[in-house]
Every structure is written in C-alpha cells, then in structure tokens.
C-alpha cells in the first residue's frame, strides 16, 4: 500500500489498536513498534515535513522507487534539522504514543535510503541539510534521529 510513514494501523487487520495494546498491557507485557524515517509522498507526515523543508526529496525528484511491491516513490526526513526532528517525534507522539505504545524500534536509521547503491549516491540523497553535504554527516544520521 502507499501509506508508508502514515503511522496508522491497517484497519482491516487492526481495527482497534488502542484496545489491542490495552489487552497486551493487561497481560503485563509492553508493546514496541517499528517506526521508520521513511515516508511516501501521499502521506500527511511527508507533506508536513516537506512543507518545512525537512525531507530529503531527491529520490522522489529522480523517480526512484523503493523495494515494496511494485515500488513506490519515497523520501526520508532530515534529522539534521532540529525542526524536522521535533516534527517527526511530534507526529509519532500524536499518532502512536497516544495509543499506548511503550517503545520504538528505530528501523532504517542507517539510513538505507536506496539499497545497492554506492556510498557516494547515498550521501547525495542526504544533501542538502543544515550541517552541510551528506558526505560530512553520512554516519551521523542515527545519532540525530534518536
């Protein structure tokens, strides 16, 4: 589906996520969910981040598709922007934390924006950002993302 990054549960499979998580808590267990810094352009989160200049949009501009199904356009948010980080975590707070989620598995914080490409190409996908060229901050993505 084309909703990657929407932070919404599939209503067909999980019609009542808050109640589901409450049942898990009643069993004295915690609920962790995988969250990604990746968004599809049609999602509200992508649009909000892009409106503030806090998305790496080069893959979208180049027409690059991801590996899901037949492939979808995508972008990763820019954690080197303090405003971008704040918006990203506010989005997660408003869409997932309010449901009772206890922990986050921060997936794809390498970030593996485009698999099987050179380091130079991956660095280009992280340019521009507030700290300079992608080559200068490439290995710091995960540090800023958390």
UniProtKB/TrEMBL annotation:
Q: Which residues form the Glycoside hydrolase family 31 TIM barrel domain?
A: 4-144
BP terms from Gene Ontology:
carbohydrate metabolic process
Protein name per Swiss-Prot or TrEMBL: Alpha-xylosidase
Gene Ontology MF, one: hydrolase activity, hydrolyzing O-glycosyl compounds
Q: Which family does it belong to?
A: Belongs to the glycosyl hydrolase 31 family.
Looking up PANTHER family in the UniProt record yields: HYDROLASE, PUTATIVE (AFU_ORTHOLOGUE AFUA_1G03140)-RELATED, MALTASE-GLUCOAMYLASE
Name of a matching Pfam family: Glyco_hydro_31_2nd
Q: Which InterPro entries match?
A: GH, Glyco_hydro_31_TIM, Glycosyl_Hydrolase_31
């Amino acid at each position: 589906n084309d909703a990657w990054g929407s932070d919404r549960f599939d209503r067909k499979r999980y019609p009542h996520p808050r109640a589901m998580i409450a049942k898990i808590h009643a069993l004295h267990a915690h609920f962790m969910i995988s969250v990604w810094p990746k968004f599809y352009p049609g999602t509200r989160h992508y649009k909000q981040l892009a409106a503030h200049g806090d998305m790496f949009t080069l893959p979208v501009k180049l027409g690059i598709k991801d590996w899901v199904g037949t492939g979808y356009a995508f972008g990763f948010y820019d954690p080197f922007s303090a405003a971008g980080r704040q918006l990203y975590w506010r989005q997660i707070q408003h869409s997932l934390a309010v449901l009772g989620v206890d922990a986050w598995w921060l997936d794809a914080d390498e970030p593996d924006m485009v698999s099987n490409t050179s380091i130079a190409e991956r660095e280009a996908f992280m340019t521009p950002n507030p700290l300079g060229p992608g080559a200068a901050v490439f290995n710091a993505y995960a540090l800023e993302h958390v």
